[in-house]
C-alpha cells in the first residue's frame, strides 16, 4: 500500500522504470553502487518528468532560483541507456535532463517507498549526493516557495492545486532531511507542513474517513519528536502544541496532555497568544475526560 498523500494527489508518482547495471554508475551527483538500479519515469508518470527540481553537479551552470525549470524533453530510459553506453556528452542538455529525471525519481521513491524494494538504497544514494550543501539550500528554498504557492491556492479555494504544491514541498523538505537528518529547522518545517496537510484538507479516500488524518498525524509526531530535541524549537516555536494536537488525533491522550502542559510552561506560550488560548482549552477538555 502506498502513502495516502500519493494515493490522493498523484497515484502514478511511484510508477518508475529501474535500469540495472553491473558496475558502479555515476549520474550527475548520484553514485549508484553496482547492482543498485537507476530509476527514471515510468510510462505516464508526469511528476517525475516535470521541472520542479534540478540537481547541481560539478560542471553544471548555476541553477535558476525560480520554482520551475525545464522538464524532461526526451524519454529518460532512452537517455539513461545512451549515457550508460557512453553516448551522452557530460553537461549537455540531454545529460542535464537525465540527471534531473533520475534525481526526481530517486527523491520520490525515497520519500514514499517505506518497505518497497530499493527503498533504503535509494535513500542512501540521495543522502550521499555530491554538491550536498548547494543541493540542501536549493531544496529548502524551493520547499518554502511551494508552501507559499500552496497557501495562495488555499486562499483561492483551489484545494486540489494546493495539495499538489504541498506534496512537492514535502518531497523537497524530505530531500533536505536525507542530506542533513538532524537539522531541527527542516524537521520542524516538515512537521508543520504535514500538520497542515492532515488538518486543513478534508479527504475521502474511499476507506476510513479518518485514515488520511491519522496517518499524517503519526508522521507529524515523529518529525516533531526529533525536532524538539533542539532548545530553540522548544522555546521559540509552537512545536509542542502541534505535537500535542497530533497525539490527540492518533489517540495518545496522556502524551497530548503532557505536551499541552509543557507548551503552556514554555517561552513560546508568550509569543503565540492565540495558540496558547487553544492549548488551554484543549488541555482542559482532555483533563475533564480523564
Features:
290 residues; two-stranded antiparallel sheet; 61% helix
> What's the SSE pattern?
HEEEEHHHHHHHHHHHHH
What percentage of residues falls in helices of 4 or more residues? 55-70%
- Report the sheet with the most strands, covering strand number, pairing sense and barrel closure: 2 strands, antiparallel
- Distance from N terminus to C terminus (CA atoms, Å) equals 35 Å
Radius of gyration: 21 Å
> Per DSSP, what share of the residues sits in E-state strands of 2 or more residues?
under 5%
Low-confidence stretches: none
Please report the number of helical segments: 14
The strand count comes to: 4
Shape summary: elongated
Structural class of the secondary elements? mainly alpha
Strand order of the largest sheet: 1-4
Mean pLDDT: 92
Describe this structure in words.
It contains 14 helices and 4 strands. With 290 residues, the protein is mainly α. A hairpin with a 2-residue loop joins strand 2 and strand 3. The two termini are 35 Å apart. Helix 4 packs across helix 5, helix 8 packs across helix 11 and helix 11 packs antiparallel against helix 12.
Short description:
The chain has 290 residues and is mainly α. It contains 14 helices and four strands.
Task: Compile the SSE list and pairings.
Elements: H1 4-9, E1 16-19, E2 25-27, E3 30-32, E4 38-41, H2 46-49, H3 76-84, H4 93-112, H5 119-127, H6 132-155, H7 159-179, H8 184-200, H9 211-227, H10 231-236, H11 239-249, H12 253-264, H13 268-271, H14 273-289
Antiparallel strand pairs: 1-4, 2-3
Helix pairs in contact: 3-4, 4-5, 4-7, 6-7, 7-8, 8-9, 8-11, 9-11, 11-12, 12-14
Amino acid at each position: 500500500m502506498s502513502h495516502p498523500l500519493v494515493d490522493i494527489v498523484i497515484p502514478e508518482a511511484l510508477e518508475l522504470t529501474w535500469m540495472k547495471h553491473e558496475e558502479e554508475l555515476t549520474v550527475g551527483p548520484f553514485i549508484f553502487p553496482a547492482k543498485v538500479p537507476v530509476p527514471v519515469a515510468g510510462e505516464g508518470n508526469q511528476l517525475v518528468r516535470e521541472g520542479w527540481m534540478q540537481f547541481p553537479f560539478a560542471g553544471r551552470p548555476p541553477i535558476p532560483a525560480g520554482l520551475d525549470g525545464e522538464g524532461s524533453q526526451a524519454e529518460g530510459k532512452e537517455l539513461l541507456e545512451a549515457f550508460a553506453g557512453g553516448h551522452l556528452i557530460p553537461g549537455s542538455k540531454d545529460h542535464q535532463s537525465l540527471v534531473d529525471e533520475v534525481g526526481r525519481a530517486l527523491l520520490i521513491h525515497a520519500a514514499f517507498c517505506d518497505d518497497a524494494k530499493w527503498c533504503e538504497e535509494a535513500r542512501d544514494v540521495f543522502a550521499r549526493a555530491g554538491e550536498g550543501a548547494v543541493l540542501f539550500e536549493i531544496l529548502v528554498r524551493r520547499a518554502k516557495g511551494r508552501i507559499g504557492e500552496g497557501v495562495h491556492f488555499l486562499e483561492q479555494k483551489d484545494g486540489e492545486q494546493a495539495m499538489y504544491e504541498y506534496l512537492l514541498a514535502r518531497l523537497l523538505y524530505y530531500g533536505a532531511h536525507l542530506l542533513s537528518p538532524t537539522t531541527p529547522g527542516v524537521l520542524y518545517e516538515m512537521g508543520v507542513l504535514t500538520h497542515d496537510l492532515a488538518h486543513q484538507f478534508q479527504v475521502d479516500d474511499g476507506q476510513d474517513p479518518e485514515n488520511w488524518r491519522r496517518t499524517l498525524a503519526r508522521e507529524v509526531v515523529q518529525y516533531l519528536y526529533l525536532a524538539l530535541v533542539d532548545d530553540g524549537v522548544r522555546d521559540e516555536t509552537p512545536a509542542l502544541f502541534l505535537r500535542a494536537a497530533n497525539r490527540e488525533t492518533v489517540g495518545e491522550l496522556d502524551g497530548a496532555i503532557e505536551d499541552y502542559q509543557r507548551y503552556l510552561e514554555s517561552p513560546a506560550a508568550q509569543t503565540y497568544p492565540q495558540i496558547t488560548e487553544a492549548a488551554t482549552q484543549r488541555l482542559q477538555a482532555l483533563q475533564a475526560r480523564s
